[in-house]
């Protein structure tokens, strides 16, 4: 039985003081729901404050990105050594990193290897564009991403993948639960081809892309979907707690 997982990706939103206020608003609600893993991923500048605020709770903390080198002349980058004292998780390969900043599968692979080497649990993001989706290339694109991103990595039952169709991120246009579940089933089969079925069956695969408190139930009811990577809705304390609460109730009822 895969433990459900809900993460909030705050992206480039909230000042440090706003992040502190947001965590304070959602902390008690999130901490009271223990049937699934709950993680918040604020901007780098707020990780230290978030780390202090979440100390003693069961709420996880994640970073939104990292570079794969431990240190050096890489102005503006953040290394796994800097993160490991503050957080447990790190988002890698988000579509905004790939599309806006030109991150390749080779770089994503390097980052995954570095995160694992330093004891960080990566949340690998993969997904197809609208054009790729409409031209029937979704499975080919996702298979290529999975194989390239996992190349050379040891099989890992704790690994987390977030399927985020690029056409659904921040657009208000989410996939249906059935669509997402079917695609995630394919992703799991692709992982099985790389790491074997036993490991693939243990890997948690999330859905991301315009997830809200209104539509979360449609996704979380699907057996293949182990949780969600939530964007904009995770910036609203009451809504994010509601998403987590609904997810816990639905998964526990199964």
Strand order of the largest sheet: 1-2-3-4-5-6-7-8
Mean pLDDT: 96
Can you give the helix content as a percent range?
40-55%
Assigned CATH superfamily: Aldolase class I
CATH architecture identity: Alpha-Beta Barrel
Order of helices and strands: EHEHEHEHHEHHEHHEHEH
Q: If you had to describe this structure to a student in words, what would you say it looks like?
A:
With 254 residues, this protein is of the alpha/beta class. The protein has a single domain, classed as Alpha-Beta Barrel (TIM Barrel), CATH 3.20.20. Helices cover 44% and strands 15% of the residues. The protein has helices at residues 16-31, 47-54, 80-84, 95-100, 105-117, 130-134, 138-150, 177-195, 197-202, 216-220, 237-253; strands spanning 5-9, 37-41, 60-63, 89-92, 121-126, 160-163, 204-208, 227-230. Helix 1 (16-31) packs parallel to helix 11, helix 5 (105-117) crosses helix 7 and helix 7 (138-150) packs parallel to helix 8. The longest helix is centred in the last third of the chain and has 19 residues, at 177-195. The protein is globular. The chain starts with a strand and ends with a helix.
């Amino acid at each position: 039985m895969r433990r459900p997982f809900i993460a909030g990706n705050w992206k480039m939103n909230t000042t440090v003081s706003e992040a502190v206020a947001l965590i304070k608003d959602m902390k008690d609600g999130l901490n009271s729901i223990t049937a699934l893993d709950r993680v918040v991923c604020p901007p780098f500048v707020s990780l230290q404050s978030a780390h202090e605020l979440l100390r003693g709770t069961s709420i996880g903390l994640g970073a939104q990105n990292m570079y794969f080198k431990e240190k050096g002349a890489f102005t503006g980058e953040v290394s796994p050594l800097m993160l490991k004292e503050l957080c447990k998780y790190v988002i890698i390969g988000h579509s905004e990193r790939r599309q806006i900043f030109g991150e390749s599968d080779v770089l994503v692979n390097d980052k995954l290897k570095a995160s694992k080497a330093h004891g960080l649990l990566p949340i690998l993001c993969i997904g197809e564009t609208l054009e790729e989706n409409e031209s029937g290339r979704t499975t080919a694109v996702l298979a290529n991403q999975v194989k390239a991103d996992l190349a050379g990595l040891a099989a890992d039952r704790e690994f987390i993948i977030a399927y985020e169709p690029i056409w659904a991120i921040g657009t208000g246009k989410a996939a249906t639960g059935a669509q997402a579940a079917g695609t995630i089933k394919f992703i799991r089969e692709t992982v099985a081809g790389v790491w074997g079925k036993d490991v693939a069956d243990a890997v948690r695969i999330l859905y991301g892309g315009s997830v809200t408190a209104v539509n979360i139930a449609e996704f979380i009811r699907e057996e293949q979907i182990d949780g969600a990577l939530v964007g904009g809705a995770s910036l609203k304390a009451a809504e994010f707690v509601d998403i987590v609460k609904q997810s816990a109730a639905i998964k526990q009822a199964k």
